[in-house]
Amino acid sequence: MARFSALASDSSDDEYASYASQAVRPTNNVKKPVGEVSESSSSHSDGDDANAILVDGQEDEEEDEEDEDEGESSSEMDENELVLYRPKRTRNHAPAEDLDAEGRYSHPRHRSHSSTSSESETEGQRPVDSAATSWAQTVGVDVQKMHVMQTSLFRMPEEAATLQAMSRPTLPRFRLTPGVTRKHSRDSLGEGRLDSQERASFAHDIEPPVYRPSRKYARVEISDSAVAGCEDALVDAGLALGRSFRVGWGPSGTIAHLGQLCGPSSQVQSSANSSVVTLASAPFFSSARDEASDRLSRLLQHHLSKTPIVKDEYGVPFADPSSELCFSSFATIYPQTNTSYEASLFRLGHALFDPFDLRFAPEITVDVRNRMHALRRKAALSAWLEEAVTSSVNADLNQVTGDPGSLIFTLLTGHQIEKACEIALDWGLVKLATLISQAPGDFEFREDLREQLQIWREQRTDVHINENTRKLYAILAGSTDILEGSRASSFERCSDVDPLKGLDWKRTFGMYLWFAEPMDAPISQVYEAYHRASQELLSRVASPLPHYLECRQGASLPFHLPRPAPSDALFSLIRLHAEPACSLSQILDPLSFSPSPCDYSLPWHLYIVLSRCMRVRDLSDRGSGERRSPDYDEETGRYEGHSPSADLLASCYAYQLEQLGMLQEAVFVLLHIEGSAGREKAIKDLLRRSADKLDDWMTSGILGSLKIPLTWVNEAKALYAIYKGDIFEAYQLYMASGLYQAAHDLAVAQLAPEAVIQHDFEFLTSLFERMSSQTVDGWYLKGKAYMDYAHAMIRLRELHASLSDTDGLDAAEEQELECLARSIPKLIGILPELLPSPSDPRHMVALSEMISGLTANLDQMKPFALSQVRLTGADEETRLRHIQASALERLMRSIQVA
Predict the structure, then answer these.
(1) What is the CA radius of gyration of the chain?
(2) For residue 479, how many C-alpha atoms fall within 13 Å in the half-sphere facing its CB?
(3) Strand partners, 193
């Protein structure tokens, strides 16, 4: 059943059927041949099929059969009755024959004559039906008279169809909704594409659409690309230069661009329609290049001193850091007066993760040991935090004048208890000094101070007490909440006091560490209290913002930071110690260390220390396996699976060092890549990109301290020599490094054709003689062919000279000549494949020279040896000489026979 069809006929159809039934009964029973009746009915049925309009160009056979059955039932007749006009059903809801470009259905279109054509036919001579004409002639009635009577009394089929169309109500045009996909539309690329389906009828359900995965794009290698060999196609610039103009980075983070670099939503003043190419470097570092070079060189030199370079099972050098590389070893490279961020970071790591030797007696239980370790770790964290906030405490002290309460509170935010007691005594505040000396105090001490604050509030005496004094009492009571003042009239009303107002995140964390939490509370409890407060009380508790945001104080940054801002790396280390489930992937965000999202220096060093050396925590994508795995370490009982994030971290850091020109340091970082194949490829690619910097000093350092194979260095130098155009130097470097395949291909394509043109057969032989005993692909069709050509040219000349000097050749020389006569035709046959490049003129000249030389020398001694060889690539002069030599030899033999 079609999607849209007329299920019942209207009144006009019934009316027309009644008129048709009257017209088919003549006055006399005249019998018509059966053949004419069947022919007439078949012609009308064909007309019905032509007028039937179906959806999508498909015919509904069942409906047509129903229509025919209804038509036959409406006009039943005997075998003596003659049907002049078969009623023609018109579909009320027939859609258009096809879908237009917009996916709409048109109004029904009828194949009957229009009203205009009907009127014109009425004015003239209306066409007469052939059946009616034959019937009129049989009866003996005038045809024209019968036609006039029929027109006056009965409706013609065309008029009935026109009236029926006029009386039919106009149907609204059917349009597809915006969400419906057109039949031949192309779905956009996304997560996946669904095949569009159409419902055959409302009685049929639509099957679930077939899921088609989205198209995946991958980079095509030049050997598999259609562009290969078409780089000089001047008539098609898109084909020739399609692979050149793509997004990519140059060496050392260099990018070539037109106009001005901008973001997706940036407003650019200059136009990109310019012929000026600008070379720019990505700002991988937030500081100056010299400062960054000194800082990273110091870290990497210390790292190299604690890291032996060994070879793995595949013979690829690998950097294996020792357990001596800990936070304390890094902290020793910074003097005590150094307050830089890197020094503070390694000192915090030493306080949180480095092992302590507390020299316990053997009889001490495990619980006591763990308890002592926790207290020792918390004391180390407290000492680090006191040193870290010293600069900010001193800055606030310089701004405080004349208020002892403010001075004492500022000192307490840095946990400077002794100095705070001295200031209180100097101002005569003996009782306050006594309370400060007991900080943080036990539970009873804190409860007494809370009761005192409550009494002041109830008795409304807090309005007469200094605000800083109230904050001191609140801090000593272990309260970090807002201290509410008494609610009274305007004269006795006291304002609220916030003890954490104006403090950065380090001093706020210190308030929880030193005063808010009990003295024996572990670090995890202190972290949890501060972290919960920073999440719930955003307006009061300072969030752990990175250090560069606190120092900038609203100044613009070179990069846009995400929202919310990342946490400070110092706080991330505290989180790593407090949360056992926290992995390194959650804290090694470059923006936590510097304002540059591409600075992976400190994250990589922390990863090496925490994961590779101390085995404290690892990246989340580290694989896991079984004891049978080759990566299982029997000594430590650990399985060292592969971590793609670790390799990516090392690659990013090495790229930064490459931008700074620190090639040896970059190679050293890449030696930490875990996969052997990836490590080898990364180092080789780095050497190739930096081949112009591989001088003697740089090469000696890479080969000596880093133990990089000489083959890798020579290969990089050879590629750079090819870039400069020194092909022979590249060939020598390939041979020295044992890369015989590369040397062979280079000699075949570049050096050998020039040697052939210059007739330097000794040099040609020396190019391939050293690699004759090696395994080289295509040796017998390329390298050995050149050697055979040089040998043949040398021996043919020598044999010809020997034949000219003496009366003839000896047996050995005759045998050698016969061997050459058999091998030279085969050699000439493979020469076109040896030099197949038509774009290189040297290849064409060398091919012609080789064929001409072999043909000329062999014709002097064995002209008939080349009778069955097609001299493809030889010039006309060589061919004519060969014909002449063959003809002369044939003539001389015929004379000898005669």
Answers:
(1) 49
(2) 21
(3) 212
Tell me the three state secondary structure of residue 295.
helix
Cα 268 from chain centroid (whole Å): 27
- Hey, what are 145's tokens? 């008279």
Q: Once rounded to an integer, what is the mean pLDDT over residues 97-124?
A: 38
Task: Please tell me whether residue 483 adopts helix, strand or coil conformation.
Answer: strand
761 alpha-carbon distance from chain centroid: 52
CB neighbour list of residue 173: distance below 8 Å, 6 or more residues apart: 104, 105, 106, 107
Given a contact cutoff of 8 angstroms between Cβ atoms, the answer to whether 385 and 573 are in contact is: no
How many C-beta neighbours within 10 Å does residue 306 have? 15
Does the bond joining 564 to the residue before it have cis omega, within 30 degrees of 0? yes
Alpha helices in 389-503 (DSSP H): 390-399, 404-413, 417-426, 430-437, 443-458, 467-476
pLDDT of residue 27: 38
* Dist. CA 85–CA 21, nearest whole Å: 9
Contact by Cβ (8 Å): 255, 280 = yes
Q: Helix or strand or coil: residue 606?
A: helix
Question: pTM above 0.70?
Answer: no
**Which residues in 66-92 are b (16+ Cβ under 10 Å) and which e?**
ebeeebeebbeeeeebbbebbbbbbbb
Tokens of 743: 């040397």
- The yes-or-no verdict on residue 158 having pLDDT over 90 is no
Residue 67 CB partners (closer than 8 Å, separation 6+): 48, 89
Strand partners, 257: 278
**Burial tier of 760 (Cβ tally within 10 Å: 0-12, 13-18, 19+):** middle
Q: CA-to-CA distance for 811 and 172, rounded, in angstroms?
A: 106
Beta-bridged to residue 255, according to DSSP, are 280
Residues comprising the chain, all counted: 898
N- to C-terminal Cα separation, the chain: 98
Write out pLDDT tens, residues 384-394. 999 999 999 99
Neighbours of 50 (CB within 10 A): 9
Q: Quick one: which of 63, 85, 80, 79 has its CA closest to 9? A: 63
C-alpha 390/C-alpha 392 separation (Å) is 6
Rounded to 5°, the CA angle 314-319-322 comes to 125
Average pLDDT over residues 217-221: 72
Q: What are phi and psi of 13, to 5 degrees?
A: -65, -45
> What is the rounded CA–CA span in Å between residue 480 and residue 495?
16
Tally the C-alpha atoms within 13 A of residue 827's C-alpha that lie toward its C-beta.
Answer: 26
- Tell me the C-alpha distance between 697 and 674, whole Å: 28
Quote the tokens at residue 5. 């069809």
